[in-house]
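Team,

Forwarding the record for the chain on the shared tracking sheet. I've put the sequence and predicted structure together so nobody has to dig through attachments.
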Amino acid sequence: MLSEPAAGDEQVTERGEVRSFGSAVMLLTLVRVVSVVAGFLSSVLAARLIGADGLGLAGSAFTIATAGALLSSGGLNIAAIYFLGRRPNEQRLVVARILTLGAAAVVLAVIFVLAGSVMVRTAVLGGADGAVIGAAAALGAAILVFELFGGLMLGLHQRNAYIAVQAIEAIGSLALTALLLLAVGRSAASYLVAAALGYAGATVVAAWAVRRHVGSIGPDFSGAFAREALGLGLRGQVGNVLQYLSLRLDLILVAALLDLRSAGIYFVAVRVSEVVTQVATSASAFLFPQVAAQTERHSTRVTEQVTRLTVLTVVAGGLLLAALAEPLLRIAFGEEFVAGTDAVRLTLVAMLPLTITRLLSGDVKGRGRPGLVSWAAFAGLVATVSLDLLLIPWLGIVGAALASLLSYAVVAAVMLAAYRGITGSRLMALIPGPSDLRLLFELMLTHGRPKGSG
């Protein structure tokens, strides 16, 4: 008769699980920071070569392209992660059916981005020409396919491949941005095309990694699976769309209510502040499949530990960037962009509730309740629109940043209530303590140490 594991053994196992998860998160965070730095350098190039107006146009078109991708995907990446975690013996079939549905989603993405761009062409895009609109449509399709294969890799627990593809996209997009802006044309369209090609190139590598894992894949359509996948995916994707609109609608409103120059400065301010959320994005990406696949369905140990470590990291990074905001904007982007200093500092504060939201969203989706994330995102969108319309005309881009802080706080409060209701766990368990600080230092010191080293 097998004896039950002792409490001490469970603690060792739990700590080992957190260390393994934490190491993967740290590696992905490093790659995402590289991605942010690459995006940062791309923005610097664009700011220097096409100016604040051009960058504001490119940022607005980028927002429309991403929104179009989110609207048309049907939550297939969410369904991929969930069903691959819950049906480990049907991986090849799930992948084939997800990709078959994804082909139709790509067509929808192009249609949505073209239609959306034409609708706001005058009010938001400053009468942009066909080249910008066409580039935005191509970018929307590329983002959708990239995110879909990302979901497949996460669902298949291909963490290393997922991390590598993220790095390829970041570095490739930077190189292509430099090439197209300097050699082809100094325009918003060139900036968008470079981003689209960066996503497309990384997707080719992702497709190779998925095929290598599951084997040859052909089209496979099942009406029953489509209803099941879209039923789950759409409940979560509504939340993704609303969350994205809450995050990016302020840029569109700044362009509409102020001007493209202000939108360009605000675009840079948001880019700078979002550096600190990369650890939260990384942790959430891995937390969703981790919770979906865990055998102990009500366990919250990993979520609690990861949340505490992530909050510590975000706070430390935010304080550092807040201190360096003004000289960073001046040196990197030029005197024109120093006007975004206060917006950077406010959005850095807003990154804390955004971090909580991203982590708990990953946990709740993993428990098969993506609809709750959508309701929280809806509350955030209502708050975002209301506050932006009130504060942007009054306070300019500082008003947009303040609106983001308040709306993110609303979403975080709703997600905390949802998480507490599902798991029954104590919210105090999410607050960092001295032992978490020690563990964070240990992870930082031991990360990358060769196996077997003392």
